[in-house]
Design goal:
Blueprint lengths: L4 H15 L3 E7 L4 E6 L6 H19 L2 H5 L18 H9 L5
Antiparallel strand pairs: 1-2
């Protein structure tokens, strides 16, 4: 996720979040993965949100950046990790995500 792909990916993920009435609280795009802190309506479902984000971003990015098609077989794997923050203060989680760039 380099050479402009990262910025376009951010805009796509924010677009999907807005459409689904979800909120991206924090986002860090790494060269090979993405960290998101998202607030999502449980009735909508985090799995549906992630599926929409991955599907749309894959489609759009591969059309807008044709070189991605030849460099990698697919943009996303089928897997993802989700965890609730529970009693953890959001500032702690946000700071963790922000600090991923330096790791």
């Amino acid at each position: 996720m380099v050479d402009g792909v990262d910025e376009r990916l951010k805009s796509i993920l924010l677009e999907v979040a807005k459409e689904t009435k979800s909120e991206v609280i924090e986002m860090e795009i790494m060269p090979d993965h993405v960290h998101l802190l998202v607030e999502c309506n449980p009735q909508f479902g985090i799995n549906k949100l992630i599926r929409m984000m991955k599907g749309r971003s894959s489609r759009y990015l591969r059309n807008e950046f044709p070189w991605l098609k030849s460099r990698i077989p697919s943009i996303w794997t089928k897997s993802y990790f989700v965890s609730t923050v529970g009693g953890t203060p959001l500032d702690v989680v946000k700071q963790y995500i922000e600090n991923q760039r330096g790791v």
